[in-house]
Design brief:
Elements lengths: L5 E5 L3 H13 L3 E5 L2 H10 L4 E5 L7 H9 L7 E5 L4 H10 L3 E4 L5 H64 L4 H25 L6 E3 H16 L6 E7 L3 E3 H22 L6 E10 L2 E8 L15 H12 L2 E6 L6 E7 L1
Parallel strand pairs: 1-2, 1-3, 3-4, 4-5, 7-9
Antiparallel strand pairs: 6-8, 9-10, 10-12, 11-12
Helix pairs in contact: 2-3, 5-6, 6-7, 6-8, 7-8, 8-9
């Protein structure tokens, strides 16, 4: 079906122009005629045609030169090139120059049938291209809206977590029981570790994954500030490869680092002693290794757990999300914990 598509036919042969116009109009097309390349190029520049058919041999501006002129228009129309039966190389040249198809001109009725089918196919191809271009534009617009929405969601989540942290802090100030205060402080650090992930997401162009090296540096800086005191320094050293993880896995790793580093800062060294905690995140061939180690007193010989044991439970739970194993490795001194998993 032509759906009244507008066609410009350019040919210096007046008789063939008229026959072509009549044949195409019978197929439902709206046909305009041009007697040469200069006239056809001017008409195409002044009016939008759905398709242009160009004869090769014309005085002045020949078919290839006319095709070249058409390609300079802001929105070039699809072009069918009309050649003689022995002019294969010209047809190839036209296709390379931008023609969508070519038709061999003959003196029989077959020419009009071939031209009609070529026009129908070319218009269908052009419509598919236009639909594809529009679909890609719609997809990009939709993706941009979703990206903006995810940025906003992460921004609000981060703000909400920051508000919850402030509530916990206010609650801790009103409590006199030291154990309760310590538990609330641990909760505050856990919330902050998760909030850091969402802060990274809404300040990044990528809202689906988190750059773990940047995130861990920010998290470690917070923990350093939390645990270091004038009388008891805790030096936290981080080495992290540039790894990106999905949001849920980034949260899991942040919780693990928070728990292991906090445990080391609380229990590895005496309250009046300085101490160092080293954190490393490495990756190789689709796997990662997270290590947290200190030079402190080491694990209790009887296997007992210091504190409430909630931190150890959280580490094991987050290790499942990270598809990793948790190992407490024997070290000459201190404690070394390793998480080994798949990226």
């Amino acid at each position: 079906m032509s759906d009244g598509a507008s066609i410009l036919y350019i040919d210096d042969d007046e008789g063939l122009r008229r026959l072509t116009k009549r044949a195409l109009e019978r197929r439902g097309y709206q046909v305009s005629l041009a007697a040469g390349g200069e006239e056809g190029a001017a008409m195409a520049a002044a009016e939008r045609f759905d398709l242009v058919a160009i004869d090769h041999y014309m005085p002045g501006l020949d078919g290839l030169a006319t095709l070249e002129r058409l390609q300079t228009l802001p929105s070039p129309p699809p072009v069918i090139y009309v050649t003689g039966s022995e002019e294969g190389r010209i047809a190839v040249a036209a296709l390379k120059a931008g023609a969508i198809d070519y038709v061999v001109k003959t003196a029989s009725e077959d020419f009009f049938d071939l031209l009609g089918r070529a026009i129908e196919q070319a218009l269908a191809t052009q419509q598919l291209r236009a639909d594809r271009t529009q679909a890609l534009a719609d997809l990009e617009a939709s993706n941009a809206r979703l990206q903006a929405l995810l940025h906003e969601v992460n921004h609000r989540v981060a703000n909400s977590l920051q508000l919850v942290t402030a509530f916990v802090q206010l609650q801790a100030r009103s409590i006199k029981d030291e154990a309760a205060k310590s538990a609330l402080a641990d909760t505050q650090r856990r919330i902050s570790a998760i909030g850091q992930v969402h802060k990274r997401l809404y300040t990044s162009d990528d809202v689906q994954t988190v750059a773990m090296d940047e995130y861990l540096h920010a998290l470690i800086a917070e923990l350093q500030e939390t645990w270091a005191t004038p009388t008891c320094q805790r030096v936290l050293k981080l080495v992290a490869d540039p790894i990106r993880l999905a949001t849920d896995r980034a949260v899991a790793m942040g919780v693990v680092v928070n728990e292991l580093v906090s445990n080391a800062c609380k229990y590895a060294y005496a309250d009046d002693c300085d101490g160092e905690v080293r954190i490393a995140l490495r990756h190789d061939q689709g796997r990662f290794q997270l290590t947290v180690e200190d030079d402190g007193v080491g694990l209790p010989a009887d296997g007992s757990i210091k504190g409430t044991g909630l931190g150890s439970k959280l580490v094991r739970a987050m290790a499942v999300t990270l598809k990793s194993t948790v190992d407490y490795v024997k070290a000459p001194r201190g404690t070394r914990v390793e998480l080994n998993g798949v990226l």
